[in-house]
Every structure is written in C-alpha cells, then in structure tokens.
Design a protein that fits this description.
CATH architecture of the largest domain: 4-Layer Sandwich
Number of helices: 7
Protein name: Purine nucleoside phosphorylase
Number of strands: 15
InterPro entries: Cu_polyphenol_OxRdtase, Cu_polyphenol_OxRdtase_sf, Cytotoxic_necrot_fac-like_cat
Shape: globular
Structural class: alpha+beta
Pfam families: Cu-oxidase_4 (PF02578)
CATH topology of the largest domain: CNF1/YfiH-like putative cysteine hydrolases
Distance between the termini: 21 Å
CATH class of the largest domain: Alpha Beta
Keywords: Hydrolase, Metal-binding, Transferase, Zinc
Family: Belongs to the purine nucleoside phosphorylase YfiH/LACC1 family.
Helix content: 10-25%
Strand content: 25-35%
Oligomer: single chain
Number of domains: 2
Order of helices and strands: EHEEHEEEEEEHHEEHEEHEHE
Length: about 240
C-alpha cells in the first residue's frame, strides 16, 4: 500500500494523515463494476488508522459536517467536508481528480478534510470549512493539497471559463490557453491554494497529478477519455484522511 504524506504535516506529531494511492487495499469505488471490494477496503482504511473513519456522501457542495461524538454516523449525509476537535476520529474524503484538502490547527487540536471539485470550490466549500474550523476555535490553520488533476490535463470549454470568472473574477489567472480553439486549461489546485492563502491558511501542495499517474491514482477524466462512446465510465476513488492522535 502506497500512502503519500506531507513533510509539513509530518512535523506535527499530534496528527496522523495520509493520501492513499490506488495500490493495495486503500481505495474505494463508485461504479458498479468496481465496488465489490469497496466495503472491505473502507474497513481496512479504518484499521490502518486504528480508529473509526468518517466518510460522507459527497455531492460537490459547500456543506460541512462537524463531528461532535465518536459514534456520530455520517456515511449517508450529503456534504463535502468534515471538521472535528475529537481525538482518535479520522476524517476521510474520496477523490478521483477533485482536490483533496487536509487541514489542521495543531495548537488547538482541530482538523478538517475537504473535497473540492470545481463545483464545490466555486460554491465556497473551502471558505465554509475554514469557517467551521474557526467556530471550533481554530486560529492558525495549515493545509495540504493532495493528488488531483493538474492544469495540463484539465481542459475546459468556453462556457466553463465564462461561468468561472463570473462567479469569481480572481479565477481568471488560473486559466491558460489550450491548443484546442475555444478551450482553456484550468489550474484547479492553484485556485484552491490561492483561496486558502487568501483566508490566511498556510497551504502546501504535493503537486501530484492523478491523470498522468495511471499506475498510482484513479482519474475520472482519464477513465472518461478511455471509455468508448455510449458506455458507462468505470472508475474508482482514492482516499485522503486525517486524525488527531
């Protein structure tokens, strides 16, 4: 099992974290053809962290759930970020190209995990996550951006471009021209990192691309490009998790 970690977070002895690859058993599936091992893999991720892991039913929203008790059940709750101040409770998110963001305030023992696809990012999931952590008492927040699709592989059309800059004009600088007329390359992790820094968060990016690293990571866009027209896209999800020890 390959798990990536951040040198920034590795210095914080009070937390455990990891960005799991698709190698081994720490992956989950979305499509029918891949999900036969999803339940057992979720249990193995929990075992790796030695405690129960909280997952959500992710819907590309800006909704954040605060875990207030160790027994709180949220697997069927529709949301895209988790926060807590409880020890020995792991917060986990699933991604296949979207940006996984793990957050912590080591001084006040508060952590968060956010799933930031383009919809969630433009809807304010990052801001809402920071807001919820602040309400718990966080003051000095650090964040790490994990494996996700990078600009060179994230081509978007004119409608996407226009809608994005209409929602947030600051996003303009994260678009570059594409070789395809009327299209652009969008730097989603760059946009997320900028949002974090604007909120006063010390953000670090692992700079790992899911699309081009087919041996290590699932990628929805890669799966889509490799799927014949008319067929269902088959893809899986890698997991990112964080816990207060």
């Amino acid at each position: 099992m390959l798990v990536l970690t951040s040198s920034l977070f590795n210095q914080i002895k009070s937390i455990q974290h990891g960005f799991f690859s698709k190698l081994g058993e720490a992956n989950l599936a979305e499509s029918t053809s891949l999900d036969h091992n999803a339940t057992s893999n979720q249990a193995k991720i929990s075992k790796d962290f030695n405690y129960n892991v909280k997952f959500l039913r992710q819907i590309h929203s800006n909704k954040v759930i605060a875990i207030e008790t160790p027994t709180q059940i949220c697997n069927h709750v529709e949301a895209d970020a988790l926060v807590t101040s409880l020890p020995q409770v792991s917060l986990a998110i699933r991604t296949a190209d979207c940006v996984p963001i793990l957050l912590c305030d080591p001084e006040n023992s508060i952590i968060g995990a956010s799933h930031a696809g383009w919809r969630g990012a433009f809807a304010g999931v990052i801001e809402k996550t920071i807001e919820q952590m602040t309400q718990l008492g966080a003051k000095h927040i650090y964040a790490v951006i994990g494996p996700c699709i990078r600009a060179q592989n994230y081509e978007v059309d004119q409608d996407f471009y226009q809608n994005a800059i209409k929602i947030n004009s600051k996003s303009l600088k994260f678009f570059t021209g594409s070789h395809k007329k009327g299209h652009y390359q969008f730097d989603l992790p760059g946009y997320c990192s900028s949002m974090l820094k604007d909120l006063g968060v010390n953000a670090n990016d692992l700079e790992v691309d899911t699309y081009s690293n087919s041996q290590l990571f699932f990628s929805y866009r890669r799966a889509y490009h490799n799927t014949k027209s008319g067929r269902a896209v088959k893809y899986g999800n890698q997991v990112s998790a964080i816990m207060i020890k």
